[in-house]
Amino acid sequence: MQNYLTPNFSFAPMIPERALGSRVWGADGREYIDLSGGIAVNALGHSHPALIEALAKQAQKLWHISNIYTTAPAQELAKKLVDHSFGDKVFFCNSGAEANEAALKLARKYGRDHFGGEKNEIIACTNSFHGRTLFTVSVGGQPKYSQDYAPLPQGITHVPFNDSAALEAAVSSKTCAIIIEPIQGESGILPAAQEYLETARRLCDEHNALLIFDEVQTGMGHTGKLFAYEHYGVVPDILSSAKALGCGFPIGAMITTDKIAPTFGPGTHGSTFGGNPLACAVGSRAFDIINAPETLAHVTRQGNKLREALAQIGSETGVFKEVRGMGLLLGCVLSDAYQGRAGEITAAALKHGLMVLVAGSNVVRFAPSLLLDDEDMNEGLSRLQNALTEWLATQ
């Protein structure tokens, strides 16, 4: 097939045509087990009937009306997010990058409004990932994503992830926010230490700064709770959500409190499509299914099974030295002998009809549907075992 898209993506040698649940079929009719979840987006699998129904029903009523107005779907989804989180108010947008952009802008404006113009420094983690806008790619601590776009936004300091001493040394009266992923996603599915998040919360309180949790990947049930911060008992001031929020229909959200939300007065920030009725109708229906106790219990149960099975495969093959993460967001860390070759493993898996991801060059990532059943899991694991056996034979 002729490619008419810009070359910033390296497409896999398979063109998906249709999908259902955790199975995908290519244009050639071949079947694949999807344990990638569209990079943690398809939380309810593909073509979930309840989401199709919600989209079709809303499509017959109202698609777009502009943010001169609010709509029932937007208010309904916002209420659910507020009722089941620390927050009081929600800003809707279309992606995780936009949700983080809003969070960072809100934090800077809050600092300026309440403490003066010098309170603008943002503390972030090395090897973090917060999006691809110029602001968020600058806050993300990976120069490979930002160095080609200099000059970059200033007032951003990076510290090592899970290094509480470095974090404490970096925070000052000029700090307006600390932004952290409770589990670093793109850099290797690395959970934050309890003490690290507690230190971040304490430092924000001491220095009148805001704590931002980027839960674009960890939120909406992937860890076995609606949001990952619930595992830690550390409450942020601002939280970003996207990916699984719409289960494939583009939507992002920033959640914050009544103390901070008034900083975004009329005209201070916006989004043409943010909170559109179609996205919110799908998101609202998805929320009900994801947040159901039986769904979250299933995530924990299946996540434990998947973790144990992956650890067993790692032990038998010698390819993985560690499996880390929470719930159904897991990363298999490559053994020293296979460092830097995660991409080769995902390519080998695809040849055997299995869709998985990388998280950096040393981690194979799994972010399947939260509804993953035993049949699809076991078939996927069987294909992974076969792929690794064949790949190892070529080494």
TrEMBL record:
Compartment(s) of residence: Cytoplasm
Sample GO molecular function, one term: diaminobutyrate-2-oxoglutarate transaminase activity
Enzyme Commission (EC) number: 2.6.1.11
Predominant location category: cytoplasm
Any one GO cellular component localisation term in the record: cytoplasm
InterPro entries, per database record: Ac/SucOrn_transaminase_bac, AcOrn/SuccOrn_fam, Aminotrans_3, Aminotrans_3_PPA_site, Class-III_PLP-dep_AT, PyrdxlP-dep_Trfase, PyrdxlP-dep_Trfase_major, PyrdxlP-dep_Trfase_small
Keywords tagged on the record: Amino-acid biosynthesis, Aminotransferase, Arginine biosynthesis, Cytoplasm, Pyridoxal phosphate, Transferase
TM regions (residue ranges): none
Cofactor: pyridoxal 5'-phosphate
EC primary class: transferase
A single BP term in Gene Ontology: L-arginine biosynthetic process
Subunit composition and interactions: Homodimer.
Miscellaneous comment in the UniProt entry for this protein: May also have succinyldiaminopimelate aminotransferase activity, thus carrying out the corresponding step in lysine biosynthesis.
Protein name: Acetylornithine aminotransferase
Species the sequence originates in: Neisseria animalis
Upper taxonomic lineage: Bacteria, Pseudomonadati, Pseudomonadota, Betaproteobacteria, Neisseriales
